[in-house]
Amino acid sequence: MAHEKVLLVDDEQEFTQVLSQRMEARGIVVDAAGNGREALEKARAESYDAIFLDLLMPEMDGIETLRHLLEINPDLQIILLTGYATVQKGIEAVKLGAMDFLEKPAEIQKLADKIRQAKTNKMVLLKKRAEERIKGILEAKGW
Amino acid sequence: MSELSPQRRHELKLAFFGRIGAHVSHEMRNVLSIVGEYAGLLADLVAAAGNGRPLDCEKLAQLSGNIAAQVRKGTETMGRFSRFAHAADQRNASFDLTSLVADVAVLAQRHLARAGCTLEARLPDGAIPVTGDPFGLQHAVFSAVELLVEFLKKGESATIKLDAEGSTAVITIQGRATVTTSELSARISRLSPESKQWKGRVDTSCTEGLLSLAFEIPIQ
Q1: Phi-psi category of A82—alpha, beta or left, where left has phi over 0 and alpha has psi -120 to 50?
Q2: Is the torsion defined by CA of A121, A126, A127, A129 positive or negative?
Q3: Which of A117, A118, A109 is nearest to A23 (CA)?
């Protein structure tokens, strides 16, 4: 089975560096972005099983980044991982389409479980999209 | 600035306290998260050693140094927050203005960073003893920084400086801003009510795009 691939988006570079090392030791492929703009560039260029997103970042905050990421691909599995945790923000993020909302600090096992769940969700959505495409083609041909 | 009711002034102070509290809690969560990840990395290395991989002493020393640096950062943050919180108890206290402005500058730096800007503090070497309401002054200075941020050009560096001459100290918050006189007039009414007490002054002419807000404080 292919390795899971994730994107960590956080302006705390030291945090993303150490978390990347720990995830990589568990066979997860990790990319990091220091702000929302960089995250959008990476999400356009690469396919990720999960994206971990901080809320408070310079220039473009987590909620705005979340909106733009879902415009690029509405099926992206995005998990807010933040020290700026309020129930209101959590609800807002999930309503916008985030998969989950976690508070820092989070246990590595919990993050690894979320990544697996995100990959499963992604596979289900890919299958659904493929079925929809096939159905569309068949209907167009009158079969 | 129109007169506000005591209830409204109290609400504004409480809201300011809340904003700073939320900011500090965010900083501390980041520090604890990094320490938590380092602890996890140490646990990973120990587990690997249990499976026969030799422990790398240099790596361990580096991790220990990184954890100590985060603890220092957290201690400084909590020290600043403690001074800030205790200032709320004192309406007429003797305090060092240089330390107070240094603390506000650090608290304001992240606020500016979120707007894509930076804040440079230019402070004198020595202490400047003053008497008054330290919490009110912090509120006044921070609200001036918040005003400036709204009009600051992205990527610009703002400055907060403290000068003392004779019997008066002046705190100046300055940056290159894009603002019309009418926009500024509308926004000034939302400066903290304590700004008046500290003779808050705003250069509304915004000469060559440079917006300045200043406070005059009598030296003890």
Answers
A1: beta
A2: positive
A3: A109
In one letter, which amino acid is B79? G
Report d(CA B53, CA B45) in Å as an integer: 8
Chain-chain contact of B115 with A59 (C-beta, under 8 angstroms):
yes
- DSSP E strand boundaries for B48-117: 93-96
CB contact under 8 A, A105 and B37: yes
Residues of chain A contacting B66 with CB distance shorter than 8 Å:
14
Count of residues making up chain B? 220
User: For the segment B117-175, what is each residue's pLDDT rounded down to a tens digit?
Assistant: 899 999 999 999 999 899 989 998 998 898 888 888 878 889 999 999 889 999 999 98
Question: Over the stretch B49-86, which tens digit does the pLDDT of each residue have?
Answer: 999 989 899 999 999 999 999 999 999 999 999 999 99
Quickly list DSSP for B99-144.
Answer: HHHHHHHHHHHHHHHHTT-EEEEE--SS--EEEE-HHHHHHHHHHH
B118 touches chain A (CB under 8 A): no
Output the six-digit token pair for B39. Answer: 């602890």
> The complex's ipTM?
0.82
